[in-house]
């Protein structure tokens, strides 16, 4: 362990104090939560400020995830992918050939001992531990004030509404290679020795993506740069060189994460802090081992399996073999479909994110998600499959759609619950990009994910109209959406009858009807439109989703009726979750909706955040 003394190693062998273990778990989580609040308050984009599509986490000096706040599961698993060395593993002399390394460890191997105070790293490449290109990761080393050694890493990953590509929103349903999806940055010092590299950032985000035929650079670089500054300045106190160039509201967030980390070190000493870093990881490991033993005992077998399919028919197949003595398991995805020409390919890091999320979700313990959850697991992914795509494969849909199917398959194999609506329902619209003469026109892009129904389980109904599993974001507030963009929301509510029927009903999906008030490019990336979310133990499946486009009648199309002028709309019907257990009696069970209201939205969130301080 980097920086561990013999005294520390002895303490680790003795085991943790249970009270201190809980205390440190919550202290570490509070650091990530505070960073998240600061990022939300200082960002300007709807995607981060309102939809909360970001994650913050704290990492050990060896790059393993220590703790994170409950943000976006798909982000943090791939940032912290933990890989145990194996005797038969391939040894990579070049880090760029190692596709299964985490985002933090990838950057550590690239930059080695050259990292210094004032450095902040940026990456979004799926082959550097990334998920898909709009998710930009910012990584900052945290140095000890005395020894000047790295004692932590802080990392934040946020989804940016537009980073270039062939369509506004950078989530094109028709992409067939990664160059059509926007800027692809393997590693870049966005802050070098305290200096913010705005010119190089512009080159990466605007100039390079526009070099690919049909693709544009980032359509709104000012928003992206502002949000990245909000992230970069969360951590490193020595980043002061460019403070005078930055918006004043970001200065307060500049020291939040780093101050809290050093406060913990000042309270307990670095050796104790590092000791409990590893105790927390070991505790998560033992919790997962206990879970695996219990699953094998309840199932009456140590062999589990499941298969589900994407809408195009591609199978995702999983077999699980549990070692009941060790509490370990091998998860083998052999039999999964080949890499596809579209964008439903999921990077290896996304597969690990889905698995680590499922393990944590099935634990009935209040522990932080961290690298220890993956230690008892060996994950086999067949080469050339859609879960191990080539470097140029399109992946934007794999991160948000295929990941949900992986979760459904894992939970089905473990017989944990019925399937959720199984899709993040990605809606993007905007304007700008390359014109007919090839010139890059400044514009804008908007992106949101739409909720649906969650799956039922043994003893509970599914939840109505909620973001499920991998996504865990909000949808854009109607008032803010209509104020900032040329759209009108005509309808947004629950879709009655879309949840599966059973002893325990699946959650209901939603309907979202949008009118576009001016010409723009609109796209929808979705799944579960031809294959229903499964029920379990005789429970009915959830309803299929449906996307309906109502075009504006035009004289040039020959369909203009002066007495019936249709508007340009997108009507999106989201499916519900599957049910658990057969309906009791001869009549179909009826879902009763409880009328309840609780304060939520940006104003309520602001008040809650203020109260937390």
From TrEMBL:
It comes from the Eukaryota. InterPro entries: Hydantoinase_B, Oxoprolinase-like. GO terms for cellular component: cytosol. Residues 571-591 are annotated as: Disordered. It holds the Pfam family Hydantoinase_B. One of its GO terms (biological process) is glutathione metabolic process. Signal peptide: none annotated. One of its GO terms (molecular function) is 5-oxoprolinase (ATP-hydrolyzing) activity. Residues 17-583 form the Hydantoinase B/oxoprolinase domain. This is Hydantoinase B/oxoprolinase domain-containing protein. It comes from Candolleomyces aberdarensis.
